[in-house]
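Subject: Predicted fold for Enhancer of mRNA-decapping protein 4 C-terminal domain-containing protein, 326 residues

User T.R. writes:
Posting the sequence so we have a shared reference for the thread.
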Amino acid sequence: MVELTSAAIDSLRKDDIAKMVFSQQTIDAFGMVAGNAVSTSVQAAYSETSQSIIIPSFERATRALMHQVNDAFQNGKGELLGQLYTQLDQVTQNQFEARFPNVFELQQMTDSFQSLAERMLSHVQATIKMHLESELQSSLLGMQEMIAHYLMEAVGEEVSMAVKEMGNRISDSVLNATRSESKPVIQVMPNLQEPKPQILQLLQQGQINTAFDMALSACNLEMVMFVCETVNFSEVFEKTPCPLQQRVLLSLIQQLSIDLGSNTELKNKFIQGAMVNLDKSDPVVQDHLTSVIFALVKHVEAFVEKHPRMIHQFKMVRLAAKALII
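User M.O. replies:
I've generated the structure tokens; pasting them so everyone works from the same file.
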């Protein structure tokens, strides 16, 4: 027998190993082992991938596709129905107009008449409103003039009667004094305190408004009454224009009406004179007239309630108050 060298033996071993490794049985065995080892992992990965990725993606894609198909179907159906309804309406209208040709013209005439009637109604309403406003304004102006004229006449009559009555009283007093040959009694006024001398000097200088303003600013009714007793009524309220400013007239009415229990006749006379000379267009009068007149009416009503016999003396004041707040 031929002895094999170690190199030959190694070569034979390598060949045998190579044949054995690359043989079909070995490959099948390795494939079976590898397949068995990998199949479990592959199945688990496939199942997980299908559940988490493939199936949800497929569902979303299918749902979106169905929505798109449904939207396209609904839009197409709506457009088709719209076109169908439009065509049917047109056909119906054409048939109706063909059978009743005058109805369309009558409808147009009705719409035109309604529009014309609305325009005429608006014009008539505007004309009536303007006419009523003009008539109302004219009536109010006429009423104001009539009331002012009536008040002037009434106050003038009351003042004339009061002056006449005072003159008669003075004449009677003089006659009685002459018949009895008594000496005239001279009343000496007490010493006037400040600012009475200044007020008296202002009155002597003819500065009536300044004198009244000073007395009213002192918020002293005695001082105001001193001016009223000293000044000549006709020089204050029977001149045109009145020498007293509007704010002075308002203040005079307010302060004189606070206490009507004393010097009632003189206060009533000056209140009437001040009310007649108020100018309702003056800004100061517009701002304070309502409050002053309401306070005056309140004081007059309270005084008349306590002295019912004096109601006739304050009749003109109450009428003038109502006229001023209209």
